[in-house]
């Protein structure tokens, strides 16, 4: 997310027209099979390559890395066109939305050179190794150890719930480098470390998710040697880098409102197909999520304005996360309610026969995305944790007595 | 006419000015005095709003105003909501000035604009189905009647029967307004675009007022739970209390974003959709604010003595005006079905 001046000379509308034409020519006619199986994953990866070659993998990123330096408004226009066209789900989310922005903030020039172009081209897929079996909401209690040995760290421990772990090439992980200081002040002594998953001693065990797909994994580290130059930010100061990462995870992804707008249009198609246009209950349900998406769109524009004026969005991230995750859940739950009995039939496009491709694509993986909506209220810091942050840090309510 | 939006600094300056004025002249004690006196509007406060230039902000310079774009007033409206201002500012300074300006050739419209600009006219607005009850009609020197077909009528007190109803919020008085006969009043003209713009301004403006009033309920609650102690700790340190407040803060924040952005977008092609959504959502946020604020104040909030009820009633009154959440939502759904239905058929 770079709000600074862009070097792109087209107007936003010219840029939009260019993107639209390119997407029309390139978006696959049929929805890709789910990325949670290898075949679908490879197709998604090929699509990422096509995007990269077109110069569209991350339009707001610097041209030096393969972006377009397009600035905030054009990047919002890109996203609006992307979702309008029903283009495939992005798979390198950990890299694109989390690690990339974090590297641009905390990484050395060498690290940016080394990792950003590859992740943009989807030559490397990244995953996020924060959570551990005993450290979820209480993330700072994490125990995976990294001990210095010459110009390497030796890593031992375990991560869990790692999204895309089974498909990823690299992991950015939080590790404990100073257990001594950590015993007194648990947010200290943590380091943000990038680890090649092909290193000896790494074992990835995919875990089946609630819908049966292997979307996340456990990652075990046994005496894994990692070069010290893979530390992002300062040693022992990784908590700050982690908070920045979570800020990106919770905050507004500029343009993603267009995804929800497309979903609500798919709901409208459902209402029509089921002949519920005059059913007040259906209109109420449709109206409610439509209002939420309009409100979210307005908020994205407002935040973009703040960012462009050089303002700080930190205090908005938790509010944004609670809102968008609830809205997303409302949208998908509403779809299932409106499908009535057919809501129990997974991925059955026959239950929802549609003319246009974008709507068809939407319905083919409605359940998959319903479950994702449920997950979003848990990951990135659960919504309960966000409410703690909003009440204590944004509104200044008295702290919970700590043990 | 090209529209110029205010800079961030200009916005903040206007909001600061408004909040400062209202802090001094429209505090809870002043509101309570009016409640006891049984009057909402006072010439004194209106005069101060006029003196600062807020009432004439949108009136053209040649008519004695500042000729500003409505977007200069979005933050001001939120602030008026926060202070539960008992004056027809939205109706007079925003909606009426916008409609009257659509009739530059009507001497009558021009003279009313000048009176508004000078601070000596209060205007009430009747907007078809959006206003079954007309706010501040009893105080008004002029009622503008904006019909669905775009006909705009200027109605003087002698042209109408104004029947006050007992408003839930006595500081936002309501009345039914009936024209005395078909010929009563003066037709200024037929201007469907101006009437549509007035509707959008009224609905988006009401969303701003509502977001502001809900924000005040949030702030009052945050303040109270921080000082009220039970079980040897501030009640605001209990997580159940915190989470209820956090949920409210999310809604109030998003409602404010949507309201400001809808009001600033009145001249955009999707203005109606944005205004309707903003008001619908502001109504939901206001509901939550109403419920949580009273619940978290406990007994004190239930008294006439304590001033919470001023805002509880303000949000209930505003939520029920200029389109309720349910009607606006349904209209949006119907519009979406029509819009996307056409796209599929094409
Ligand atoms: C689909 C999915 C993908 C994920 N992907 C990743 C990933 O890629 N990388 C990664 O590092 N992690 C990932 N996670 C993990 C996620 O971040 C954690 O699940 C989350 O932080 C919660 O931790 P936990 O599961 O241990 O739950 P717990 O922390 O044990 O929480 C259990 C319940 O208690 C509540 N709770 C806990 N503490 C408090 C408190 N102080 N106040 C109020 N309520 C509280 C929680 O809100 C929750 O409802 C993923 C999770 C899911 C579901």
UniProtKB/TrEMBL annotation, chain A:
Residues 236-395 form the Acyl-CoA dehydrogenase/oxidase C-terminal domain. Transmembrane segments: none annotated. InterPro entries: Acyl-CoA_Oxase/DH_mid-dom, Acyl-CoA_Oxase/DH_mid-dom_sf, AcylCo_DH-like_C, AcylCo_DH/oxidase_C, AcylCoA_DH/ox_N, AcylCoA_DH/ox_N_sf, AcylCoA_DH/oxidase_NM_dom_sf, Mycobact_Acyl-CoA_DH. Pfam families: Acyl-CoA_dh_1, Acyl-CoA_dh_M, Acyl-CoA_dh_N. Residues 11-121 form the Acyl-CoA dehydrogenase/oxidase N-terminal domain. It comes from Nocardioides lianchengensis. Belongs to the acyl-CoA dehydrogenase family. This is Acyl-CoA dehydrogenase. Its cofactor is FAD.
From TrEMBL, chain B:
Residues 206-333 form the Acyl-CoA dehydrogenase/oxidase C-terminal domain. Belongs to the acyl-CoA dehydrogenase family. It comes from Nocardioides lianchengensis. It comes from the Bacteria. Residues 8-119 form the Acyl-CoA dehydrogenase/oxidase N-terminal domain. InterPro entries: AcylCo_DH-like_C, AcylCo_DH/oxidase_C, AcylCoA_DH/ox_N, AcylCoA_DH/ox_N_sf, AcylCoA_DH/oxidase_NM_dom_sf. This is Acyl-CoA dehydrogenase. One of its GO terms (molecular function) is flavin adenine dinucleotide binding. Pfam families: Acyl-CoA_dh_1, Acyl-CoA_dh_N. Keywords: FAD, Flavoprotein, Oxidoreductase. Its cofactor is FAD.
């Amino acid at each position: 997310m770079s709000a600074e001046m862009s070097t792109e000379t087209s107007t936003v509308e010219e840029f939009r027209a260019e993107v639209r034409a390119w997407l029309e020519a390139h978006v696959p006619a049929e929805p890709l099979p789910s990325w949670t199986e290898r075949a679908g994953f490879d197709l998604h990866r090929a699509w990422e390559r096509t995007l990269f070659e077109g110069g569209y993998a991350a339009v707001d990123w610097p041209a030096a890395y393969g972006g377009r330096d397009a600035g905030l408004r054009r990047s919002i226009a890109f996203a609006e066109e992307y979702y309008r066209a029903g283009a495939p789900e992005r798979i390198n989310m950990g890299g694109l939305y989390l690690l990339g922005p974090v590297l641009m903030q905390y990484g050395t020039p060498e690290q940016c050179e080394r990792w950003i172009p590859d992740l943009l081209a989807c030559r490397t897929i990244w995953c996020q190794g924060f959570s551990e079996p005993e450290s979820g909401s209480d993330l700072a209690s994490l125990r995976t150890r990294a001990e210095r040995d010459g110009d390497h760290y030796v890593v031992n421990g375990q991560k869990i719930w790692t999204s895309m772990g089974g498909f990823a090439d690299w992991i950015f992980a939080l590790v404990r480098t100073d257990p001594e200081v950590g015993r007194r002040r648990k947010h200290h002594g943590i380091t943000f470390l990038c680890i090649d998953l092909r290193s000896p001693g790494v074992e990835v065990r995919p875990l089946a998710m609630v819908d049966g797909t292997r979307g996340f994994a456990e990652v075990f580290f046994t005496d894994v040697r990692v070069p010290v130059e893979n530390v992002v930010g300062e040693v022992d100061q990784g908590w700050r880098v982690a908070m920045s990462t979570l800020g990106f995870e919770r905050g507004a992804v500029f343009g993603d409102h267009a995804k929800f707008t497309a979903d609500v249009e798919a709901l409208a198609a459902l209402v029509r197909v089921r002949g519920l246009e005059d059913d007040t209950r259906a209109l109420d349900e449709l109206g409610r999520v439509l209002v939420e998406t309009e409100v979210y769109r307005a908020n994205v524009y407002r935040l973009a304005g703040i960012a462009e004026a050089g303002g700080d969005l930190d205090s908005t991230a938790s509010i944004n996360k609670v809102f968008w995750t609830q809205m997303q859940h409302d949208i998908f739950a509403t779809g299932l309610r409106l499908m009535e009995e057919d809501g129990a039939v997974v991925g059955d496009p026959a239950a929802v026969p549609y003319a246009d491709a974008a709507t068809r694509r939407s319905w083919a993986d409605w359940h998959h995305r319903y479950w994702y909506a449920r997950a979003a209220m848990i990951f990135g810091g659960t919504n309960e944790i966000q409410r703690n942050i909003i009440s204590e840090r944004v509104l200044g309510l008295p702290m919970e007595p700590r043990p | 006419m090209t529209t110029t939006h205010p800079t961030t600094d200009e916005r903040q300056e206007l909001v600061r000015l408004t909040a400062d004025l209202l802090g001094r002249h429209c505090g809870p004690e002043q509101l309570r005095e009016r409640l006891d006196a049984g009057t909402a509007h006072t010439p004194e406060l209106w005069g101060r709003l006029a003196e600062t230039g807020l009432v004439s902000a949108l009136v053209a310079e040649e008519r004695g105003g500042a000729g500003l774009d409505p977007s200069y007033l979005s933050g001001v409206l939120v602030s008026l909501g926060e202070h539960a201002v008992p004056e027809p500012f939205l109706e007079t300074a925003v909606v009426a000035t916008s409609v009257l300006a659509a009739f530059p050739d009507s001497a009558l419209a021009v003279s009313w604009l000048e009176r508004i600009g000078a601070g000596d006219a209060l205007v009430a607005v009747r907007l078809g189905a959006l206003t079954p009850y007309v706010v501040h009609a009893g105080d008004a020197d002029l009622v503008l009647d904006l019909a669905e077909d775009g006909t705009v009528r200027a109605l003087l007190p002698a042209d109408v029967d104004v029947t006050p109803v007992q408003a839930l919020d006595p500081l936002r008085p309501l009345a039914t307004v009936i024209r005395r006969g078909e010929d009563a009043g003066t037709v200024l003209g037929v201007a469907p675009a101006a009437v549509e713009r007035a509707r959008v301004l009224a609905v988006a403006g009401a969303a701003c007022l509502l977001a502001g009033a809900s924000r005040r309920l949030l702030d009052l609650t945050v303040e109270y739970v921080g000082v009220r102690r039970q079980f040897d700790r501030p009640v605001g340190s209990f997580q159940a209390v915190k989470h209820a407040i956090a949920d409210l803060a999310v809604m109030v924040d998003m409602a404010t974003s949507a309201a400001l952005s809808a009001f600033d977008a009145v001249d955009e092609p999707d203005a109606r959709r944005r205004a309707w959504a903003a008001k619908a959502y502001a109504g939901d946020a206001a509901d939550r604010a109403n419920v949580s604020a009273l619940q978290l104040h406990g007994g004190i909030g239930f008294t006439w003595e304590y001033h919470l009820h001023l805002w509880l009633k303000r949000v209930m009154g505003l939520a029920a005006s200029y389109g309720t959440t349910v009607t606006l939502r349904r209209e949006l759904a119907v519009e979406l079905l029509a819009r996307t239905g056409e796209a599929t058929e094409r």
